[in-house]
Design goal:
By secondary structure, this protein is mainly β. It has a single domain, classed as Porin (Beta Barrel). It is built from two helices and eight strands, in the order ααββββββββ. It has an eight-stranded antiparallel β-sheet with strand order 1-2-3-4-5-6-7-8. The longest helix has 16 residues. The two termini are about 40 Å apart.
Length: about 160
């Protein structure tokens, strides 16, 4: 009878380590850029769920505000996306991210340029614990409509 009790306790301990709450990770990014006549504030929270020890998937949201006083230009960007992470081995992480952003630009206090921008990022990063650092590439990049200056962008992720 003691053997069965120990086995049940062991199974219960494993279940508590693999509970829903232990597989959900919250993270994201925050950015403030201030300069002479220029300011940018961005926040990008995200939530992922570990489907397996190798594969995680989740959602993210993005908001960015930018103001250029010298050009009298203001930009508001908001939207969201989906993210998939693959960790095939210790230290290596591959990612796929789809992002859809609404871009609202105004010039001389006149809203004159509202549009949607889609991006599909493929990336690779070095991962240590909850931190990943690497690069991603937007395979749908359009230099005319993108708010970013390049299809290549850095990855810096932290999940708790």
């Amino acid at each position: 009878m003691a053997f069965i009790s120990v086995s049940l306790l062991s199974i219960h301990a494993q279940d508590s380590n693999n509970s829903f709450a232990n597989r959900v990770h919250v993270g994201g990014g925050f950015n403030i850029g201030l300069g002479s006549g220029y300011s940018t504030i961005a926040i990008s929270p995200s939530v992922i769920y570990d489907l397996t020890p190798v594969f995680s998937a989740g959602i993210n949201a993005t908001y960015l505000y930018s103001k250029n006083k010298s050009a009298n230009q203001e930009t508001n960007v908001f939207g969201g996306g989906l993210i998939a992470l693959i960790n095939p081995m210790e230290g290596l992480q591959f990612s796929g991210e789809y992002e859809r952003l609404k871009i609202k630009r105004s010039f001389l206090n006149i809203s004159n340029n509202d549009y949607w921008n889609d991006a599909l990022y493929l990336g690779a990063a070095y991962r240590q614990g909850n931190i990943s650092i690497g690069l991603r590439y937007d395979v749908m990049y359009d230099k005319v409509t993108s708010i970013y200056p390049s299809a290549l962008s850095p990855i810096f992720r932290i999940y708790f």
